[in-house]
Recover the amino acids of this structure.
């Protein structure tokens, strides 16, 4: 069967002209759509950024809006609310970068200024999108490298591409947000980064059927680049597939209606 991802990758003209084509194709292959995903803007790009807020604001006062949502929705105590908000946020934020890297080594650089958000949709905790001029990092072999598009950044090799992913996603985006969370509630860095590690791993595993190469290898490379490789393990799951075993907890078990996630480090009785 030809998937949406296969069709996008076979059309080199569209592939070169649309920097995020591999990412939206992967989303369609995973979820059946890239336009109706609670948590992400339709087809990722925000055509009118004036109605959205740069996510850099989550290192300031906008963080309180994000943290208040799980407090109201699940009656979560402040540490659990922060841990669960971070868990959801990092999964949806990292997903486009992970899919871009895994599908074609094409990475949208999701800095706090290029990633946008709003809180208008009551279904997700926050809706994320990308500025229409977001920079996309590519290898010299990518068709985009010769496109002349101003938002394309050509890097020398795989190591530099992973360094750009880490710089934009973690160093310039999530680290300031993490520090802002820790200024409000008592949560360890390891606890929070464990959710980032599991989110990246789940993104790869959930796209395994439409992505080339080994999922385990891709996860090892990505988590190593982000410096969080020691926070999860890949274990045998159902039907011979891999699953994620966390070494930290998202604190969902502390909710008034406790939940223990499948890969939680807290063993169910």
């Amino acid at each position: 069967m030809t998937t949406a991802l296969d069709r996008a990758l076979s059309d080199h003209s569209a592939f070169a002209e649309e920097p995020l084509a591999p990412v939206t194709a992967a989303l369609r292959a995973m979820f059946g759509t890239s336009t109706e995903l609670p948590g992400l803007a339709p087809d990722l790009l925000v055509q009118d950024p004036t109605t959205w807020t740069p996510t850099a604001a989550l290192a300031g006062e906008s963080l309180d809006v994000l943290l208040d949502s799980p407090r109201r929705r699940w009656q979560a105590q402040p540490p659990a609310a922060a841990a669960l908000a971070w868990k959801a946020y990092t999964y949806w934020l990292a997903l486009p970068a992970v899919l871009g890297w895994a599908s074609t080594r094409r990475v949208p650089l999701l800095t706090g200024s290029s990633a946008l958000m709003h809180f208008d949709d009551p279904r997700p905790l926050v809706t994320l999108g990308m500025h229409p001029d977001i920079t996309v990092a590519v290898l010299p072999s990518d068709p985009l490298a010769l496109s002349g598009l101003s938002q394309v950044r050509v890097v020398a090799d795989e190591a530099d591409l992973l360094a750009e992913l880490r710089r934009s996603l973690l160093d310039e985006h999530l680290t300031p947000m993490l520090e802002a969370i820790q200024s409000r509630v008592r949560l360890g860095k390891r606890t929070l980064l464990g959710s980032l590690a599991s989110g990246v791993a789940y993104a790869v595993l959930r796209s395994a059927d439409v992505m080339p190469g080994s999922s385990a290898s891709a996860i090892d490379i990505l988590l190593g680049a982000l410096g969080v490789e020691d926070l999860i393990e890949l274990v045998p799951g159902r039907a011979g597939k891999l699953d994620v075993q966390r070494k930290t907890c998202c604190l969902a078990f502390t909710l008034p209606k406790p939940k223990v996630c499948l890969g939680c480090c807290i063993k169910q009785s």
